[in-house]
Amino acid sequence: MNPIILALVTVVLGVIACVTYFFGSNWVLDRIYPDTGPNAGRNINRANAVRPWLFMLPAIAILGLYLVYPVFNSIWLSMMDRSRENFVGLENYRWMIADDKFQESLFNNAMWLIIVPAMSTLFGLIAAGLTDRIWWGNIAKSLIFMPMAISFVGASVIWKFIYDYRGEDQTQIGLLNSIVTSLGGDPQAWITIPFWNDIFLMVILIWIQTGFAMVILSAALRGIPEETIEAAVLDGAGPLTVFFKIKIPQIAGTIAVVWTTITILVLKVFDIVFAMTNGEWGTQVLANYMYRMTFIDGHAGRGSAIALTIMVLVIPIMIWNIRNALKENA
Amino acid sequence: MLGLAGKSPALVWVVNLSALLLVVLWTIPTFGIFVSSLRDRDAISTSGWWTALSASEQSLVARAGAPDDAQQVGGAWVVAGSVFEDGTTGDVTAFGSRAQDPTSNEPGEPLVLRDDGVLEIAVNGDYTITYADQPEGRRGARIFYTTEVPPTVTTENYEAVLSSEGVAQSFLNSLTVSIPATIIPILIAAFAAYALAWMQFPGRIMLVAIIVGLLVVPLQLSLIPLLKFYGVVGEAFGVSAKGYVGIWLAHTGFGLPLAVYLLRNYMAGLPREVIESARVDGATDFGIFMRIVLPLSFPALASFAIFQFLWTWNDLLIAKVFLGQSDNQMVLTGRLVELLGSRGGDWEILTTSAFITIIVPLVVFFSMQRYLVRGLLAGSVKGG
Questions:
Q1: Which residues of chain B does A156 touch, with a Cβ-Cβ cutoff of 8 Å?
Q2: Which spans are transmembrane here (chain B) (predicted)?
Q3: Which residue from A minimizes the CA distance to B358?
Q4: Does the B159-378 domain belong in CATH 3.40.1050.10?
């Protein structure tokens, strides 16, 4: 069968199955605990105690299987050898700590973690500040936001074209080398220069994430009460002072949210490195190394250990998010 | 806020120019591959895409007719023809008779050849070589000339890529993955979100906290355990572990935390009176959900749908792990990575394929940006 027809049939069947489940289970519940007769009051209470769990059962089952179980299974797997049969204790972790490529990945991830969220937030803030003051701000916002819709792989092709390198005697068709040669410099194979190639890969993610930061920060900037700004202006503050001393402190919470969101994304960055360099020339990162270890080298134990490293790095942000959520709902 | 900038014209200019610079920087990369995808192979590899609108210069060589074939015209012998006889076109901007100096003369400017013939070329490529006496020789003179070819737009890259590189099939495969992977989680999440927003039961806040925690669990952690699980299930049912059902459910699982979180936040903000009064009128939870909450939650449903569609369409990792590498399972992102490896320098293939992969998300993005922004503002703790 043509896959696209299969997909559409699945959608229809899935919708019918879901509706049947929710409707059917409710109907059954109402039959078991009828809201009439001698025990009506008790029955209604019991039905109301069960009903939420019927509504949540599919979601809980899927979340359990796809996100919760894998965490614990990964911990177990990370203590197994290549064949996944023999228990080796902490051997994979010992290997990991001593491994050069792992250290390189950790170092590169740390660089990504420092540079990408900072630059995306900074550019996002600048873009938000500028576009809120011009009459064509919405068009400008749309265009800066656009890379957000582009896949990391698509973005990698777009930027690989910009970084394209040809021999010195040839016409440079890559934008970057063309600019460099027109300024009198020598063309470079940018993505093979250690250290700097990391920066060139980060540019891609910054390019994508700036729009996200801009949209959120722009909304926060507009939410600042006018009075605080007017008061500052009456006291003689210039536009820059107003921006840094009045506006920034008031949106500090939002900046933190943007920063952590991009941080989590950065920890999991895979596609860009995979498509641009596949970890060559000193650009390896944890997510790509995990993929390589598991699916190319075929060592699920070591792969799991690397994946758990990413998890451990995410946990502080996770706790922070949970605490905020509990505070809001308390 | 606007008033501050409006006071000083200089500041207005600075703000406008800075914004323009930012917009140009952010759009030029995408614009570059779009322009390149419309240029032909030779043009892409000989000049930068930013020159696409200016005419491109080419240096070519043609061989004139043999002196033996010269015709007597009046008192002289003339060899005539056109340098474009081989099918090339354009305007001649310069010509010469020696390889060392191929641009010595301009059209209309006569050039004396080594055998005393006088060569003249018009802009349109017609040339004449005039001899005073009857010339001899079987080989015609070589003419070096430079032409300016006007810029051309071609769709042949798209035709080539869609017909031969498997991109068309991958396009369908991507749709096959994305559509169910967008709709299934919405259905499941909507019910759970309603329960978490409007039903009273012990442990509700705890569950919300768990969902928020699950938002940031790296999916790298899930790959091996799930692949193992799929292997067991596939074996039990005698089907391959890699297939569309598996990836639909995987995307559902990874998208659910955000779906539940977004929808719960939105539903919890609906007016309490509407729901309470329906309850007083005897409506069941199921009825309230279907008739009141679901229709009112349309903006949140749309926000999540756009997120999930963009995410599943643009995903590479999950497709690489849970789908096979055969033609009828490879999605667009996977195809693009493969082409990047196998057709590394063929930019006419790469730029065109890249543009095909991003066109659907761009259309979705520009047509539904409002909902996307709303979703972002509501769910900005999500890690992506």
A1: 340
A2: 12-35, 177-198, 205-227, 247-267, 288-311, 349-368
A3: A150
A4: no
Residue B1 has pLDDT above 50, yes or no: no
pLDDT of residue B87: 64
- The interface predicted TM-score (ipTM) is 0.86
- Beta carbons of B195 and A152 less than 8 Å apart: no
User: Are the beta carbons of B222 and A6 separated by less than 8 Å?
Assistant: no
Amino acid of residue B238? G
DSSP code string of B170-194 = HHHHHHHHHHHHHHHHHHHHHHHHH
Regarding whether A109 and A72 lie in a shared domain, the answer is no
Same domain assignment for residues A324 and A185: yes
B164 at interface of A, judged by CB pairs closer than 8 A: no
Of A4, A66, A291, the CB nearest to B172: A4
- Whether A153 and A274 map to the same domain: the answer is yes
CB A215 within 8 A of CB B373: yes
pLDDT at B2: 44
Our measurement of the distance from residue A160's CA atom to the centroid of its chain's CA atoms, rounded to an integer in Å, reads: 22
Domain boundaries defined on chain B:
29-53, 56-149, 159-378
Across the interface, of B204, B340, B373, the residue whose CB is closest to A157 is B340
* A3-56 pLDDT per residue, tens: 677 778 877 887 888 888 888 888 888 888 877 777 777 887 888 888 888 888
Taking the CA atoms of A7, B159, A151 and A128 in sequence, report the sign of the dihedral they define. Answer: negative
Residue A83 lies in a domain: no
DSSP string, A175-228: HHHHHHHHTT-----GGGSTTHHHHHHHHHHHHHHHHHHHHHHHHHHHTS-HHH
Judging contacts by C-beta atoms under 8 Å, the chain A residues touching residue B187 are 14-15, 18
Closest-CA residue to A219 (of A145, A327, A151):
A145
A165 phi, psi to nearest 5 deg: -125, 135
* A150 contacts in chain B (CB < 8 Å): 30, 314, 358, 361-362
Q: For B231-290, write each residue's pLDDT tens digit.
A: 888 888 877 778 888 888 899 999 999 899 888 888 888 888 888 888 888 888 888 888
B294, B227 contact by CB (below 8 A)? no
Contact B222 A67 (CB under 8 A): yes
Task: Based on the fold, state whether residues A110 and A66 are members of the same structural domain.
Answer: no
Question: Do residues B308 and B185 lie in contact, with contact meaning Cβ atoms separated by under 8 Å?
Answer: yes
Residue A172 belongs to some domain of the structure: yes
How far apart (Å, rounded) are the C-alpha atoms in residues A308 and B166?
A: 37
Chain B residue numbers touching A326 (CB-CB < 8 A): 205, 209
